[in-house]
Design brief:
With about 270 residues, the chain is mostly helical. It has one domain. The chain is built from eleven helices and no strands. The longest helix is centred in the N-terminal third of the chain and has 35 residues. The radius of gyration is 18 Å and the shape is globular. The two termini are about 20 Å apart.
Length: about 270
């Protein structure tokens, strides 16, 4: 099962990761990005990720873990792995200062209004790229594992993560462009930060491949669900609120859940 979908899973992970470059192009090639459209996209992405994590990924993890551990202990291990995933991504956040943390993405107009101290802006862009690269490692693993298990599930996760990577590309490209005046440098730095997503997927695959069994798969999948829920609640929804109106973010979140539910029903 794992080898058959390998190339497809890698392709989806590359697509999701390199959408940071699309976010960069969106900002650098247009005079103005619609805040409401961005807020709606982020809310939609959060809805997709929360729904698929809780309804699909968590359940698949539990079904896998009850085989080696039994019903009760399998459920307990699933819950522990889920919150372990949340703790892992929260720990990454803790060690990255807020000013460089992509979970603290600023409005593009706000960044452009920063006093044009080139060194300060360049530092902001470089640290944002580094922080995004670190965050993309577990996201890459989430996309990859989803696609390896079930292609339709992998597509849903990849699209949701691709949408949420767009403002991360903005977070890198805008300060670098303001500091250097070079669209090329701004684009390539944001583009390269997205490459950590397929790198994270490959590292995770080769590290886990030799020990992959029902227990390992279930623990990894439950952890991935926790990571995706944390990203949705800590990053996507707050950023959607910042870019647009509260109701746009919530309605888009519900729409994302509905679309995800419909797509899952079509594959039952």
């Amino acid at each position: 099962m794992y080898s058959e979908n390998f190339l497809f899973a890698i392709a989806l992970t590359v697509f999701a990761g390199l959408s940071t470059g699309f976010g960069s192009l969106l900002t650098l090639m247009s005079k103005k990005v619609s805040p409401k459209m961005l807020a709606g996209s982020l809310g939609f992405s959060a809805g997709v990720m929360i729904y698929v994590s809780m309804v699909e990924i968590f359940v698949k993890a539990k079904d896998s873990l009850v085989i080696p551990f039994g019903d009760k202990m399998g459920y307990i291990v699933t819950v522990l792995a889920f919150f372990g995933g949340i703790a892992f991504i929260a720990l990454i956040d803790f060690f990255i200062p807020d000013v460089e943390n992509p979970h603290e993405i600023r409005n593009t107009n706000e960044v452009k209004m920063v006093n044009k101290n080139n060194r300060k802006l360049m530092r902001m862009g470089l640290f944002s790229a580094l922080a995004i690269g670190i965050h993309n490692f577990p996201e890459g693993l989430a996309t990859f594992m989803g696609a390896m298990t079930e292609p339709a599930l992998g597509i849903s996760i990849a699209v949701a993560i691709a949408i949420h990577n767009i403002p991360e590309g903005i977070a890198v490209s805008v300060p670098v462009y303001c500091a250097t005046g070079s669209r090329r440098k701004a684009f390539w730095l944001s583009f390269m930060s997205g490459l950590s997503e397929p790198i994270g997927a490959l590292l995770g695959y080769f590290v886990l491949r030799s020990v992959m069994n029902e227990a390992t798969f279930g623990i990894v999948f439950a952890s991935v669900a926790g990571i995706m829920v944390y990203i949705s609640l800590d990053e996507l929804l707050p950023t959607a609120e910042e870019y647009g109106e509260h109701h746009i973010a919530i309605r888009s979140l519900i729409a994302g859940m509905a679309v995800m539910a419909l797509s899952l029903m079509l594959f039952v």
